[in-house]
Amino acid sequence: MKELKRISEQDAIYLAGFFDxxxxxxxxxxxxxxxxxxxxxxxxxxxxSICNTNFAVLQHIVNSCGGWVTTLPRKCxxxxxxxxxxxxxxxxxxxxxxxHILAAILPYLxxxxxxxxxxxxxxxSVLEYMHRPHPGHNGKPALTKEEVxxxxxxxxxxxxxxxxx
Length: 165
Prior knowledge:
alpha+beta
């Protein structure tokens, strides 16, 4: 399991400000291909991302907080003056890192505080479900119909919050 980075207060403050302006937190259902062969559970996760044209700032976030950076494909039309658009990068964090990073930056968030709190609530509830006894199951338990509905309801609540912002 990937070790989570220790996030300094200074880096948490910096990331919170940057994330409030440029970041995105959501609860998403990932494609079936990401769930693995024979998977029975929908793959629903809370995830973070930031898109930006400055690779160095996103790499600083990787070094100080975790996650990874990828390049975004160019699908944009040229600028009105015909010039090319700058290359864009996306910083992302997986589900476990998302919860760790959100917990560190939450005290400093302003704009996306409610969304971050909902994502943390989602993550905690997933862990609670996983650690509950599931008689007759070894390993990762199959989700009940009610649990799937609850997770989708939280994802819908996050979408509604984002539409309001």
